[in-house]
Design a protein that fits this description.
CATH class of the largest domain: Mainly Beta
Helix content: 10-25%
InterPro entries: BTN3A2-like_Ig-C (IPR053896), Ig-like_dom (IPR007110), Ig-like_dom_sf (IPR036179), Ig-like_fold (IPR013783), Ig_sub (IPR003599), Ig_V-set (IPR013106), T-cell_Activation_Regulation (IPR051713)
Low-confidence stretches: 1-15
Subcellular location: Cell membrane
Strand content: 35-45%
Pfam family, one: V-set
Radius of gyration: 42 Å
Protein name: Programmed cell death 1 ligand 1-like
CATH superfamily of the largest domain: Immunoglobulins
Shape: elongated
Membrane topology: Single-pass type I membrane protein
Mean pLDDT: 85
Structural class: alpha+beta
Length: 287
């Protein structure tokens, strides 16, 4: 009898050891996008009832993300932060995959998550979810106009993202500018994003290119500042043609008027000359 009990204990212990859960240790998601975290387990023969528990362990407090007990979804104790944003893909459970999808991820969704699967035996694994907001839209400007000769200029870059980025400046030759010439400040938005403003003092001239790079653990985003002379308004080809046509028409009109006035003046002179000749002939005849 003692031997039978030991054998049963060994078989039960061995079956539990064979039921293991596997999971990727890290997941990276972009703000406002969707992320799917996968918990893999032996699918079994379909006879045992399945329970799946997803929790976020940190940052504290520990909260429930999703719970399925004996094959039934239970949302009564689900944390309000995740309500309406998480779902478990039921059709994948029979394949041994507990896929948890979080939609429209927030910055505060970041943390350590635990997946516990029970199907006769049970096991769990933990993973870390990191939500980032890339510094995509960088506003890069030169705060003063450049000239052909080197002059002191102040350049500025500004962008919003998460986590807080450090900003590195490089010049036309890709040389990193010293930190003593830079100044970086930041503020936070209501969404938890950092607005990072970086400035650098350079001795630059028109034609040079400077680069600002926003660097975090998972991404690097850059923008260029091309020092160029102030641009003048562009004139279209049609405008040029109209302007030239107007100028030529004006010149032709002036020439025509000049010829008309000249002709009239010459006619008047000829008339006066004829009158003078007639008068002179009349007086000579009377003599």
């Amino acid at each position: 009898m003692k031997t039978v009990i030991l054998l049963l204990f060994f078989l039960l212990s061995n079956s539990k050891a064979l039921f293991t859960v596997e999971m990727s240790p890290n997941y990276l998601a972009e703000l406002h996008e969707n992320v799917t975290m996968e918990c893999r387990f032996p699918p079994g023969d379909g006879k045992a009832v399945l329970s799946v528990f997803w929790e976020r362990l940190s940052p504290p407090p520990r909260v429930e993300v999703y719970k399925m007990v004996d094959g039934r979804k239970d949302v009564d104790s689900q944390d309000p932060q995740f309500r309406g944003r998480v779902q478990l893909q039921d059709d994948e459970l029979t394949k041994g995959r507990a896929l948890l999808q979080i939609s429209d991820v927030k910055i505060n969704d970041s943390g350590t998550y635990q997946c516990l699967v029970e199907m006769g035996a049970g096991d769990y694994k933990q993973t870390t979810l990191t939500v980032q907001a890339s510094y995509r839209n960088i506003t890069a400007t030169a705060l003063q106009g450049c000239s052909l000769s080197p002059t002191p200029l102040l350049l500025q870059c500004q962008a919003a993202g998460f986590p807080k980025a450090r900003v590195q400046w490089t010049d036309t030759s890709s040389s990193v500018l010293p930190a003593s010439r830079t100044n970086t400040s930041h503020t936070m938005t209501q969404d938890g994003l950092y607005i990072v403003t970086a400035q650098v003092k350079v001795n630059g001239s028109c034609g040079e290119i400077y680069n600002c790079s926003y660097i975090t653990k998972h991404s690097v985003t850059s923008a260029f500042i091309h020092l160029s002379a102030p641009s003048f308004p562009k004139i279209s080809t049609l405008s040029v043609i109209l302007m030239l046509g107007g100028a030529l028409l004006g010149m032709a009109l002036c020439v025509s008027l000049g010829l008309i006035f000249k002709k009239r003046g010459f006619g008047r002179l000829q008339g006066r000359k004829q009158i003078y000749v007639r008068r002179r002939a009349f007086f000579e005849h009377r003599r």
